[in-house]
Amino acid sequence: MKRLSNTAAFLLLLVAGVVRAGPADLRLNSPPQVILTRSEQTLVGLRVQSARTLRVQPQVEAFGQVLNPAPLMMLNAAMETAAATANAASAEAMRLRQLYTAGRNTSLKTLQAAQVQALADSLKRDSLRQQLRLDWGATIATLTVAQRNQLIRQLVAGQAVLVRADVPGGTADAVPIAATVQALNGGSHVVAHVLGPAPTVDPALQAPAWLLRVGMPGAEVLRPGQALRIALQLRGAAQLAVLIPETAIVRIRGIPYAYVQKGSDRFQRRALKLLTWQGDGWAAGGQVEPGDTLVIAGASALWRAEQAPRLAAKSKSEPRDSDGDDD
Description:
Blueprint: H1 2-14, H2 23-27, E1 33-35, H3 38-43, E2 47-50, E3 52-56, E4 59-66, H4 70-101, H5 108-141, H6 145-157, E5 161-166, E6 176-183, E7 190-197, E8 209-214, E9 227-234, E10 239-244, E11 250-252, E12 255-261, E13 266-277, E14 282-286, E15 293-297, H7 299-317
Antiparallel strand pairs: 1-13, 2-15, 3-10, 4-5, 4-9, 5-8, 6-7, 6-9, 7-8, 10-14, 11-12, 12-13, 13-14
Helix pairs in contact: 4-5
């Protein structure tokens, strides 16, 4: 009997909405409103809290992917081999020069051949260093050998990943100071460190790009080639925002909304502009203001209730057979 009572109350919930969500509502010229009694709020586990204020840096949205570390590993190995070879060739040329100067058993031809070999090996070493800068940017190129080897060990062990972030419509003077990344198919938001500008521009996008590093925790869930949604925080004056928990957000046609309580039994759907992930929620602008009473649990039930009038109207318009049953 208790189960039947809960079911009946839930059905009552689905017809409690007073506004149909249509195209005009999604623009929110007039915020849609839902009415739920206190007993219905209890039934769906609805909870509210006051929207908290915070200040956040301006940001831009970017898209990118996790880079394959194999080319960097192979280039680094070639660089170390070339450096060792160049050092050995230089030492041999110096030794032969000392012998030749002292008049010992070394011909001029042998000395010159050693000097040519040392020059060729040093040019190869320098060429690989320049290739590192061109392929991976100044930040990676200026690492010491020990730092670069440590980074590669972390990449191989899955303790770090490198990410390229492209900013469609961005400008070169919008310099990011921090970033968060998220897989396109969802998942947790992961903090990333901005290494510097990417060495190349995507020919199709013709937009600024940045190289990021993701460490632990977070790197263990990312794989080379994985597409990411990226938020880049920029230098500039901080802006006022409110903190919106993820559980408060309802996404409709890709647009984020939250419900605000207006009176004991009335709730309005408000559009959000998500700014940055804060670890315990989104810093957001839009139509939710500091001090608003925000629905942090049960928002999806409010959205279903808001849709109920449309669903009921559709049900009444469906054809029935001669016995009065639905087809």
